[in-house]
Amino acid sequence: MVAEAFVVRIPRTMYSEMVAHVTAGYPNEACGLLASKDGRVVKNYPTPNAAEHPDDFSEISPQDLLRIANDIDTYDGEMFAYYHSHPRSEAYPSARDIEWARRNGLYYIIFSLQYHPEPPYARVFSIQADGSVSEGKLELTD
Ligand SMILES: [Zn+2]
């Protein structure tokens, strides 16, 4: 067994909101951002998927990004993780995901709905500037 490189903790209620958001987006990809403050995840920003082909990719519109960044500023938080769903495939970053992630420095939380209508499951990744991918452990907190 490979040791997990890092742990990302998310409040259980927030995780349920994320699951509801990505399930509602099915059969398209759905996306959102998580913000942290002092290293703790504090807020979930589910957004519409602005990608040209939302069944194949996910993207947050510049307007939504700006609105979220402004809100995060009000409590001195930070963008922490980008999350999105893969409606038909494994919860693993696609080549295009890696291309974006290596430039934005966010954790990537990916949900897979490949067993829909079973509930989606999620995996978390850290993607380095050189494109290397490492998987962490998601922990739900009460
Ligand atoms: Zn993806």
Can you characterise this structure?
- It holds the Pfam family Prok-JAB.
- One of its GO terms (molecular function) is metalloexopeptidase activity.
- InterPro entries: JAB_dom_prok, JAMM/MPN+_dom, MPN, VirAsm_ModProt.
- By secondary structure, this protein is α/β, with parallel strands linked by helices.
- It has one domain: Cytidine Deaminase, domain 2.
- Helices cover 26% and strands 36% of the residues.
- It is built from 3 helices and 7 strands; from the N terminus they run E-H-E-E-H-E-H-E-E-E.
- The chain has a 7-stranded mixed beta sheet with strand order 1-7-6-5-4-2-3.
- A hairpin with an 8-residue loop joins strand 5 and strand 6.
- The radius of gyration is 14 Å and the shape is globular.
- The chain starts with 6 loop residues before the first strand and ends with a strand.
- The mean pLDDT is 95.
- The site of zinc ion has 5 residues, from strand 4.
- Zinc ion binds next to strand 4.
Question: Can you give me a brief rundown of this structure?
Answer:
With 142 residues, this protein is an alpha/beta fold. The protein has three helices and seven strands, in the order βαββαβαβββ. The protein is 26% helix and 36% strand.
